[in-house]
Fold these 4 entries.
Entry 1:
Amino acid sequence: MDRMTQRLDKHVEWLDQSERRVSEVEDGQAELSTGHAKLSKELGSLQTKVDDLEARSRRNNLRIVGVTESTAKDNMEGFIECLPLQLLGRATFFDLFVVERARGSLVTRLPPVPLRVPL
């Protein structure tokens, strides 16, 4: 009997330790879940802010297509500032606008190739 009581005590002790470990794991999992929810909410908020900033940065941009760099010569910004005034007239604009940056396309132009027609 004494031996069975000792074995039973060992099993009870082992069961208590197992229950404590399971409880600790469950508590840790609950903390991770709440932390994940907070981080997900913050990520959504930050993504909204980034989207808003991107939209605001594009709001005042103007893309002019078809102006060659040879037309603008060396002063692309000055040429782009004068172009709308020349095309639409000064009366169209209340204030002068400022060109912060003007650049050409990044693609290099290839020399013209003669047209070849197979006979």
Note: DSSP finds three helices and no strands in the chain.
Entry 2:
Amino acid sequence: MSDNKWVYSFGGGGADGDASLRELLGGKGANLAEMARLGLPVPPGFTISTEVCTHFTTSSGGYPEALEGQVAAALERVEGLMEKRFGDPANP
């Protein structure tokens, strides 16, 4: 299992990153993280790091082993904060 962090969450009163991580999170991801960190009203979400693209292009199209679990955990966090369930027709 990899210890690399591939997914960075934001919203709900905090963020895993900030504006200094522009190269890692991209411009939009870094700005959303910074706004959430400052307490501005940002809907919860997550950013997949630019390192995933680098990994994909240098490993013959493979994704990092831990990516799926990290995305699932981030999505679960968003669902909890929003009190909604992804793909749930009764509470989307």
Note: The first strand starts at residue 7 and ends at 11.
Entry 3:
Amino acid sequence: MFAKLKKYNFSFVNNQKIKFMKKIIATFLSLALLTMIAGPSLTVAVSPNVNTGLTRGSGGGDIPVIKAKWEMKGPCLNGADYIACPSVGEGNDDEVSAGAQFDAPGVWGANMNYTVCAIATDPDGVADLAGVYADIYYPEGKAIHDRTPSTDVHRDTARGTQDIGVEGCGEFIEENTLHQLTKAEGYHLFCEEIRDNNYNLPVFSEYYDYDEICAPDGELMKEEAYVYCSDKDLIWEDPAGDYKVNVFAQDNASNNSVTLTNYFEYMPFTGFEKDFSSVSYGQVMLNTHKKISGDLTFGNGIPSIRNVGNTRLWMKVAQDDMGLGQSSGIWNVQYDGRVGNNESDWTNYDPFGYKGTTPGSYTQLEDIVDLSELEEMDFSILVKKWPNVNTSYSGTMWLSATSAPFRNCVD
């Protein structure tokens, strides 16, 4: 009986110890879990800002190489995918001279699309190339106004000092990342389309030419070099001239290739658009100037013009005699015209000839019409003698334009 009681007590004590230990373990687990859940939310930073920095890694391996580069008519890609220039053909430009020459669109608001390409390799393998890049610059010595199309606030005349521009002048436009073509795409573009049909389009780095690049055992065929391209554009009002393009490659060790530079020409186009098809002077009194004013609203039929070319321009005008004829060798009618509304810009001109003939010469008007500028045109007529009893007269006016100097760059 005693023995049984003693055994029973021993079991009871053990059970109590086990229960006690379980409570302690459960308490510690609960505290640990609470710390895991609530701990981070209780952390208070003295300052939320953390300074960061790095040191550019450099060295190691040989530098990449740009073997050749060129520009051609575009677009030739869809995003990063090469689509072989479907609307313009591969490897084309607009002239036969060496390098690339591109026509301006001559349309208000339109773009000139082109594509920049290069062939790049790396002695440590093309997988070591981190990127191929093109930097594009405005022509030197040609200043332009703000890129937003607007009326020109800087007045200029053929008789005055040239205006100062605020952009252009060889300034950096942008940097672009070129996209890798496949082996087949690149070889076909460069070694077949360009070499066979537009031989003098690219420029080469020293020691490289078509024979080296396109050889059956050359790097293009062995996938040790690739063609890289990117679509770009100029807008209709970007100035005519030679645009510089620098291309370079960078590898994973931050080594840069030697930069390969060339220029493409945005060929000059002088052109304008008018929004009126007639000028009615209405009732005109003898020896009295009758003026007809234009406005700055394009499209309402009241005389205005806008520059759709990539040069500044002067407007030119020619007018027949409207049947008013001459007296003693002197024209019975005189005209005046101007661009803009400066009083000093009125220019008078006689008829170029009799009604029914075509002009052999034009009269140049003031003021200069700037890139993408919209301006009014004003006209005036002075009848000095009525030749007969006719009550109405009509004739034809011709408008033309000639290029004007670009704005001066600030030294």
Note: The CA atoms of residues 20 and 195 lie 90 Å apart.
Entry 4:
Amino acid sequence: MLAVVQEAATASGGLDLLGAGIGIGLAVIGAGIGIGQIGNGVAQGIARQPEAAATIQTAGIILAALIEGAALFGLVITILFKFF
């Protein structure tokens, strides 16, 4: 009975890696799409109002940093799922 339980526990070794890969992949794709949309909005805003370029650029950088933080959080959670 113990051998069957141990075999079942080790058989799922590849699935946790697959789940970790899918998790971080989705986090990175989402972050990339979000940062692309922010860059698009910043470029359009600066094109419409060049005199407000510094303010728009600062807001864009802050928003991009928040999205990167969310992607980094996804990476940390994925690593935690992998090892714990």
Note: The mean pLDDT is 85.
